[in-house]
Specification:
ICL/PEPM, 2-methylisocitrate lyase-like PEP mutase family enzyme, globular, 10 helices, Pyrv_kinase-like_dom_sf, 256 residues, Pyrv/PenolPyrv_kinase-like_dom, lyase activity
Length: 256
């Protein structure tokens, strides 16, 4: 498939009630394994990619290196690739769009794009995030690329007390509406774990909803019934693999 065809296929895989499952990867090797396991598409996780290369999360990994990793994944696997692009490595809309273009040039057909202030506090005002999403969409449209912009809100992730998530729904709905109008393709709500609230967001959002698996989220079958369109695993796969590696190494060295 061409890159445009991959982008169109990636969008088609987002089906409400029949969610796309993304077991997040971090390099070409993990991409190859997950592809061979039967995945329909690939997605990186920013925390995992950074950790695998010795960096912390929060755009600490250089954009140039992230682009190379995207290229290596793209040439290793024929599947559509979405790159977790955090806050776009910039603040101003035009600069964000230019950075996204670099990732597209290296094979990505989708991005995660978050509204949190990377390196700061809170989330960007809706008007600012809308301008940033719109700039990305306009850039992609000029290139005739149906880039999948998975617009992430960090409202729920930044509120650690899940008992308070109910009061964040109205703001989440405003952001979903505004992001859709600006040209986003999906709505990502990491940190949201309550089944009733997940269902409420899926019913209300004009965009396909992405939920990240956490210890207290419903299982994947249940999330499909709630109306979820995309399920991702974030840093969990990387942590599992590194945990196994550490355990085996410790067992080996304890014998000597």
């Amino acid at each position: 498939m061409s890159q445009v065809e991959k982008a169109a296929e990636f969008a088609r895989l987002h089906r409400k009630g029949d969610p796309l499952i993304l077991f997040n990867i971090w390099d070409a090797g993990s991409a190859k394994v997950v592809t061979e396991a039967g995945a329909k598409a690939l997605a990186t996780g920013s925390w995992s990619v950074a950790a695998a290369n010795g960096f912390g999360d929060g755009e600490a990994i250089p954009l140039s290196l992230l682009a190379v990793i995207a290229r290596l994944i793209s040439v290793t696997s024929p599947l559509p690739l979405s790159v977790d692009f955090e806050g776009g490595y910039a603040i101003e809309p035009d600069a964000v769009a230019a950075n996204v273009e670099k990732i597209m040039d290296h094979g990505a057909v989708g991005i995660n794009f978050e509204d949190q202030v990377v390196g700061g506090r809170g989330v960007h005002p809706i008007e600012m995030q809308v301008a940033r999403i719109r700039a990305i969409r306009e850039m992609a449209d000029r290139r005739e690329m149906p880039l999948f912009i998975n617009a992430r809100t960090d409202l729920f992730l930044q509120e650690s007390d899940t008992a308070h998530h109910q009061i964040l729904l109205d703001e989440a709905y405003r952001r979903a509406d505004a992001f859709a109008e600006a040209g986003a393709s999906g709505f990502f709500t990491p940190g949201l774990v309550d089944a009733d609230l997940i269902e409420a967001v899926c019913d209300r959002s004009p965009l396909p909803v992405n939920i990240m698996v956490r210890p207290t989220t419903p299982d994947n079958i249940a999330m499909g019934r709630l109306g979820v369109s995309r399920i991702s695993y974030g840093p969990a796969p990387y942590r599992t693999v590194m945990g196994m590696l550490k355990s085996e190494a410790e067992a080996l060295y304890q014998q000597t």
